[in-house]
DNA sequence: CAATTAAATGAACGTTCGTTCTTTTAATAA
DNA sequence: TTATTAAAAGAACGAACGTTCATTTAATTG
């Protein structure tokens, strides 16, 4: 056989990305072969090279599209008129919501940095850093307004992000807690962690 | 050539573990070949099989020894007469200290769970769970004494652990902050996060 | 000191890897 | 409708993979 009836390049390319994502999340980049990907797509291994010049390009595209999507989605949240407290709450809810529905992307964007060759690594690392900046900036603003009280904004930001990233490792859709409850709890925990004192205000 | 002058089995076995650890931490289990390990040890690939029946056995031993060491080291800390607050502070300092000096072990014990075959996976997962129990228990005790105030002990424990595990991803020995400062900051951040109110007491 | 065991070499095993190439067929453009 | 291009198959490439094996030599045991 040769070209398959009804096959369209852009669709196959999208399918390659879609099918590769869960494979890499489960087995890791190095452990996923082009033949495994081809099987998942329903195509011969050689055909993958009609759409990507190499295996590495698939990984880079997966990761950069995820990071771009994450940053763009946060940019879409209107936090202009918010106080730092409200902004951190928005961020916590945003991060949990966004990442819970894209667990595989988050996982590989965190885990497979080391599988990237130098150029790709640099590109992705910059996007990650931009995301960390979001939290650092919110915490710094909260320090300025006096709503937050932390020893070191950078350390506090990394603590917040570490805590949030960890959610992906244990969250299960059918678990004891709903997504909403988890968001509520994390908002409370993380606001406390940056020294916000909610006493006398409505509890979360 | 054949057996090398002065070569002792137990030393070679230890060397295999020691040299394999940073390789897997950097490249991932699947991306590290037996020949790479053999080169690092200074031995032929076939000789590795005098000491380990398979590549998988090396990974399992690395991970289980790390988890055993971690649990044993915590068990050595005498927290019997401590309050939950003191105990959580001890745990935070212990975790950061222990893990900063064993960054590669921590990294692979977290990252390479998926590279484990079923039996090994089960064994390691149990040890991980035992470590999580430590934090859950401290937080529950703090709830009982009223020192802590959290919405959900399990979520709070996972948040604390996520936050701590994240330290390994950004800590650099020559960075801006000393290990001691980082410990101090995390103690403060994480005690706040579990609702401990240090007001009126000596600040950390 | 002789026999045995431990620890290494280096070649080889079959398999799988990422990738390339030729060929075939479907879709599209002229 | 014919020519061209896009998208697939499938065989093949050399390289690398985990592992095995016969062999050699050092250390240990009787």
Q: How would you characterize the overall build of this protein?
A:
2 copies of one chain form a homodimer. Helix content of chain A is 67%, strand content 0%. Chain A starts with 8 loop residues before the first helix and ends in an 11-residue tail after the last helix. Chain A has helices at residues 9-27, 34-41, 55-76, 84-100, 103-111, 118-145, 153-170, 179-193. The mean pLDDT of chain A is 93. By secondary structure, chain A is an all-alpha fold. Chain A folds into 2 domains: 7-52, Homeodomain-like (Arc Repressor Mutant, subunit A, Orthogonal Bundle); 55-193, Tetracycline Repressor, domain 2 (Orthogonal Bundle). Chain A has 8 helices and no strands. Chain A binds chain B through residues 26-31, 111, 114-115, 150-152, 154-156, 158-167, 169-170, 176-177, 181-182, 184-186, 188-190, 192-195, and chain B through 26-31, 111, 114-115, 150-152, 154-156, 158-167, 169-170, 176-177, 181-182, 184-186, 188-190, 192-195. The first copy, chain A, binds a DNA duplex (30 and 30 nucleotides) through loops.
Mean pLDDT of chain A: 93
Based on the coordinates given, report the CATH architecture of the largest domain in chain A. Orthogonal Bundle
Helix/strand structural class of chain A: mainly alpha
- Low-pLDDT stretches of chain A: none
Radius of gyration of chain A: 20 Å
| CATH class (first level) name of the largest domain in chain A | Mainly Alpha
Largest interface: A-B, 41 and 41 residues
**Helix share, percent of chain A:** 55-70%
Q: What would you give as the CATH superfamily of the largest domain in chain A?
A: Tetracycline Repressor, domain 2
**Total domain units of chain A:** 2
Number of strands of chain A: 0
């Amino acid at each position: 056989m040769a070209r398959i009836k009804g096959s369209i390049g852009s669709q196959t390319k999208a399918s390659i990305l879609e099918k590769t994502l869960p494979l890499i999340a489960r087995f890791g980049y190095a452990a996923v072969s082009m033949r495994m990907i081809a099987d998942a797509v329903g195509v011969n291994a050689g055909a993958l090279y009609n759409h990507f010049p190499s295996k590495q390009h698939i990984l880079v595209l997966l990761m950069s599209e995820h990071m771009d999507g994450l940053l763009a989605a946060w940019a879409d949240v209107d936090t202009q008129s918010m106080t730092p407290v409200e902004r951190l709450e928005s961020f916590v809810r945003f991060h949990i919501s966004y990442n819970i529905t894209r667990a595989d992307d988050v996982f590989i964007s965190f885990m497979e940095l080391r599988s990237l060759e130098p150029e790709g690594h640099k590109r992705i690392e910059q996007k990650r850093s931009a995301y960390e900046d979001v939290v650092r900036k919110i915490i710094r603003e909260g320090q300025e307004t006096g709503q937050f009280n932390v020893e070191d904004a950078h350390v506090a930001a990394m603590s917040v992000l570490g805590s949030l990233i960890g959610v992906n490792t244990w969250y299960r859709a059918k678990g004891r807690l709903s997504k909403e409850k988890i968001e509520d709890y994390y908002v409370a925990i993380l606001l406390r962690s940056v020294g916000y004192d909610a006493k006398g205000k409505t509890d979360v």
